[in-house]
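can u pls check wat happens w/ zinc ion
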Amino acid sequence: MTYAQQQIERILDAAQNLDNEGVCCELQGYLDELISYASTFADEMNVCENCGRIISYGHTHEGYDGNTYCGCCVEDANRAYSPIRSYHYHKGTYEFKDNGEVLPQKFRGFELEIETNGLNLELFEILENYDSEFAFEEDGSLNNGFEVISNPMSFEYWRNVGFDVLRDLITDLKGVGGVYSWDGGNCGLHVHFSRDEWSSETFRTLIKLIIANPTYFKALSGRDDFGYCRIPNFNDYDLESLYNSERYLAVNFTRETAEFRFFRGTLDTPSIWCSIELCDYLLRYCEHISENGDICDYTLSPRGFEEWLRATTSNADILLGFIARRHRIWNLKQKRIAQRGY
Ligand SMILES: [Zn+2]
């Protein structure tokens, strides 16, 4: 019994004693009222399991452990049950994963934002099963969601392990239900590359390609809103040092990583596969252009990229199909906006 409950029991006891002793009949009505109010309060009041504060019915929160908490304590209480850590909790702890290939490899990782209709113990149990492969963190842009964060993976590791584990995780989450990423439109899929495995000239070429073709990349992204991943212009970068003052750009750089931020989040695993592959191939194409300059077989353009993909990769049909689908969706959307204004 908490302190608050003890006190209310004492008030009831005192009133009951007075009643047993007998009071003059003018006071009996007040005493009956006091006993009635106090016992109703004792029955209906909720007490925060953590701080002992009395809470009214409307301000009572049920924790994941089934206990009642006040609004101030419920988040901390739930955190103890949640494998979702605070933003940047895992920073600096990621392990590079490869399949024993000859190094150096070009490592890449991703962050996938997922929203839920409400976090619960069932979802937490699923996440815990995957916490050796992925980290889970809160993100300020999400309501009840979390980010799935991968380790930096080599191509072989992603193909043989990482992607399969991600697919299993998403299947399990969908089994619980109430999870989404594409719907709602506020989730992103970010793809990261280690900066030192690519030349600065490759990144400069990539920046030029994106700035010159904003519509191509907007359509590819699947997004309606670019508030968190604006298509950049040349003023956004110091091209010499590859420094950008703003992080919310379609492609941005930190000291160690290059980040592609423009993809819309999705729980469709083939689309996730294609998105991550395309970031990789975009860099490889830009590397090819930057190394071969004017005598290159391919021009720096979306068309040049697609021709290069067709000529150099065995997955070209799948990737080009994905690009075409995203562009069809974009074109239909633009047509609708032109006709109906939304
Ligand atoms: Zn409390």
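The radius of gyration is 29 Å.
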